[in-house]
Amino acid sequence: MAGYFHAEGIVLKSRDYQETAQLLTILTLDHGKIDAIVKGVRKPSSSLRSGTQQLSRSRFLFYAGRNLATVTQCEVQSIYAPLRQDLGRLAYACYLVEIADSVVMPGQVNPVMYNLLKQGLEMLAAAPPVLVARAFEARTLKILGLEPRLDRCAACGGSLTGGGRVTVAPAAGGAVCPGCCGREGPEYRVMPGSIKIWQQLNHMQWRLLQRLQVSPARARELEEIMPAFLEYYLDRRLKSRIFINTIGGNDDDGTGKNRSAAGTPGNRLPGSQGGPGTGWR
Ligand SMILES: [Zn+2]
Fold first, then answer.
1. What's the 170 CA to ligand 1 centre distance in angstroms?
2. Residue 190 CA, ligand 1 centroid: distance in Å
3. If you measure from the C-alpha of residue 160 to the centroid of ligand 1, how many angstroms do you get, rounded to a whole number?
4. How close is the Cα of 265 to the center of ligand 1, in Å?
5. Could you tell me the distance, in angstroms and rounded to a whole number, from the CA of residue 138 to the centre of ligand 1?
6. 237 CA distance to ligand 1 centroid (A)?
7. Higher confidence at residue 59 or residue 279?
8. Where are the domains of the chain?
9. What's the CA-to-centroid distance between 181 and ligand 1, angstroms?
10. 100-116 per-residue burial string, b: 16 or more CB within 10 A, e: under 16
11. Ligand 1 mean position to 156 CA, how many Å?
């Protein structure tokens, strides 16, 4: 592609470049991920500052050069102001952005992931951030074709049996029956109620998310297992989770009440064998 072209996009990353420029990574609706320079944007007088800051969604006019594209104009669609005024929501916004950045490969056009990110950022302004993050993870796994099997054993198709805690193994692709436990990588033990919430999240419309009732205990379990699933398949640690933990974002369980107990419940089974996920937690 050469010459000028328009694209709507969300700024995933921005870093300083040369004296007054910035180098952006922008996820666009129609052209995939684009690395682009914005010249002079660090000058106070630049008209491009607002629309090119990280998390902004804008309509850009690019010039495709030989190596890098250049942003020559941009028209702001949303800067997601409510997220910038709340450190907790901002941390979760960075988490959604990091997931989208990890999922979309260079050169890949992925309008479904773009629209998911756009919806996720919009929902973060209105719904409990923890629930938005879980719904976003569930949808991302579906987009990747990796929706976990949770109704029966993902390994043998058999019944999960009993009413006790269910074992979930990312490497197996979902829940596993007692007979298949201990065979495939890291495993987690979760309450059947948490599995039900996960199944709801897989199919729930965004607008219904605010009505979802999740107990603090289930929220904590899902906070551990759902990101672990995603990290297992992306084969990387999502760094913004550390930021969320640092600012105490985990303490908001999505129910409006802070947790009473500190720390994570440690649902990972002792002695679980590591697959590609070894050492992630
Ligand atoms: Zn089985």
1. 14
2. 16
3. 7
4. 25
5. 23
6. 28
7. 59
8. 3-79, 82-251
9. 7
10. bbbbbeeeeebeebbeb
11. 4
| CA 70 / ligand 1 centre spacing (Å) | 53
pLDDT value of residue 1: 57
pLDDT of 280 > 70? The answer is no
Tell me: pLDDT of 188 over 90. yes
Q: What pLDDT shows up at residue 65?
A: 86
Percent residues over pLDDT 70 in the chain:
88
Write down the pTM of the prediction: 0.86
- Residue 95 Cα distances to 55, 79, 107, 133, 241, angstroms: 11, 17, 22, 8, 7
Give 131 Cα–ligand 1 centroid separation in angstroms: 30
- The reply to whether 3-79 and 82-251 are identical in fold is no
Q: What is the pLDDT of residues 204-221, one digit of tens each?
A: 999 899 889 999 999 999
User: How many angstroms does the Cα of residue 226 sit away from the middle of ligand 1?
Assistant: 20
Question: Average pLDDT of the chain?
Answer: 87
Is residue 36 within a helix (H) or strand (E), and if so which, with residue range? strand 32-38
Model confidence pLDDT, tens digit, residues 64-80: 988 899 999 999 999 99
CATH of domain 82-251: 1.20.1440.120
Identify the CATH assignment for 3-79 out of 3.10.310.10, 3.40.50.1860, 2.170.270.10, 2.40.50.140: 2.40.50.140
Question: Strand 69-78 to strand 32-38: parallel, antiparallel, or no bridges (unpaired)?
Answer: parallel
d(CA 173, CA 164): 20
Instruction: Return the structure tokens found at 239.
Output: 């760094």
